[in-house]
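User: Teach me something about this protein's shape.
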Amino acid sequence: MCRRLSRRMKTKTFINNLFIFLAFILVFILEVNILGLNPLLVIFIFSVFIYFLFKQKKNANLFSLLAQLILIYLLFLSITDILIKNNFKIYFVPFALFPMLVTVIFSELELSLIMSLALSITFGFQMRSLEWAVLMLNSTIISSLMVWRVRRRSKLIHTGFVAGLVQVLACLFMNNFQIKNLSLYLGMFINGGACGILISGILPFFEYLFGRITNISLLELSDINNPLLKEMILKAPGTYHHSLIVGNLSEAACEAIGADALLSRIGAYYHDIGKINKPQYFIENQVDSNVLHQELSPSMSKLVIINHVREGIELAKKHRLNPRIIDFIEQHHGTSLVYYFYLRALENMAQDSDVDEEGFRYPGPKPKTKETAVVLLADSVEAAARTIKEHTPAKITELVHRIINNKFIDGQLDECDLTLKDLEKIAKVFVKILTSMYHARINYPEKKPSTS
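Assistant: First, the predicted structure itself:
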């Protein structure tokens, strides 16, 4: 079995490397047709190929990432080639647009800087000018750094005008600070602002096309007037409150381990939306504990509980939530055991019958990313913390470590990149927040009535 898995992994790695190689051959052929053959160009393309081969080899979505980056690169190459061949003014070239797009869409600054270098060198070859390559590189690096983890659309426009100002200063430097052509400088400044305005408009299209989600869209999903959150508040208030706490736990834990904190928080807000359809069957929304489940067999109760994942996915697709958010709904239980109803089934089991543990497990999949794994842990820890009678620091610490260890031993964290060091950091964050939440209160003495 292990040998077969090893062979499959080697085959998959070979296919990945072959795909990357063919993709860069395609880019090379197109560049040679447009820019002509140049030794520096060959060296540059080979260097980028090596980067992807080694730096991104652990990326599970390497196929799609590469295809998306190639699309953006070829889009820039085509646009600039058309503008140059038709003798458009230089300030019509969208210098800052594509690096800003890469930074915001992929949320990887290193990837954006590599793309900035690629676009600048390509543009330098197109213009047959090192000066214009340097000008574009300055503009792209500044704009990439400024929109790193941006959360407001206004920041994109502001960054665009700053990039335009950088382009004007670079032009002045190229011309020894002599204002020979005022229209050039004005055009370069407007160019930057136009890039900022344009990117704020085209972001939703690229998010949909690439199946990604930006911080801007995530913050829009956090609005309580969102139809799904509003419905949860009205129909399943206990679930909504639980989701808020899970979101806070997840965000703090992801910050501690260097994962995407905002994505984990918003994913946590929506992870239990499937409970909206039957909120009364979940303990956090019940007035009388488990009255409804007492009327059902353990296997039927298990189906109701497990189905909230499937129903949540259906609701999310109906409301067109981004696939990155749907991942949290689908993976927040992994293949965990519905332990309570499994024990009830064992207690009610007749001597001649058998209870299959696998039948009481969630269908999965297990968490694939750090963010979804953190939400899985936060979800379990928050629910279990409510069952403690005395919320002392020692008991909370013991509970957190026990749950994380159980999830680790059960294999729920096998498919994500969390390390043991990460798990220790996550546990410390959970303990700190839960201890603060359940701190002791002072019993205030009652006011005695006046005897006078």
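Now, about its shape. The first helix runs from residue 2 to 35. The chain has two domains: 14-210, 223-437. If you'd like, I can walk through any region in more detail.
User: That's plenty for now, thanks!
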